[in-house]
Amino acid sequence: MNVIIFGPPGAGKGTQSQNIVDKFNLHQVSTGDLLRNEIKNNTDIGRKIEKIISHGDFVSDDIVNTLLKKVITNSNHRNRIIFDGYPRNIAQAKNLDLMLNSDNQSINFIFFLKVTREIINKRIIGRIICEKCFRIMNEYSNKEEIDNHECEKKYLKKRDDDNQVVLINRYDEYMKKTKPVLDFYSSRSYFHEIDGSSEIQVITNKIEQILTV
Known about the structure:
This protein has helices at about 15-25, 30-40, 45-55, 60-70, 90-100, 115-125, 145, 160-185, 200-210, and strands at about 5, 25-30, 80-85, 110-115, 125-130, 135-140, 155-160, 190-195. With about 210 residues, it is of the alpha/beta class. It has a domain at about 5-115 and about 175-210: P-loop containing nucleotide triphosphate hydrolases (Rossmann fold, 3-Layer(aba) Sandwich), CATH 3.40.50.300. The strands form 2 sheets. Strands 2-3-1-4-8 form a 5-stranded parallel β-sheet, with helices on both faces. It has a 3-stranded antiparallel β-sheet with strand order 6-5-7. The longest helix is centred in the last third of the chain and has 25 residues, at about 160-185.
């Protein structure tokens, strides 16, 4: 099966994506990782990407599509891909359909983790990190865990306000850019909107239930 997962910063998309990869043995595709790998491997296209980025420009859809097509047509990944952070616009969504169809594949499931800005605010502003064991907790939803945490209280730190503001602004920007893509997919029978404000395990169970029907 091929899966697309959408979710704003703070929605838990990364956690759920990794769970799907582990549980269903899928290959996770992130366009950012594809670009970085080409640069790291010093390929011809990687050198081109590095030059574009060094000038502060965005990598074109043509380059991204070329890299995606290599993954989609790879027999090791066929019909077992989860697209993380792609597509980002209508043109990419339409092109993804074309690439998959040309290889006799299709999207089988689309998940959107819907979380309100207020919930994101709480998750980000309430986030506490233990500098000793690196555990992440939230002062709103993990009060008991924080009180009983085995490390000393002095290790429990909040992130900088600047980071919080940036993340909250990223939520607004994400929702604005992603809405047309969600509208494009929302009428499809395999589009599933999931309440991202639920507990992690509740969301996981819901997604797994849909994937195993």
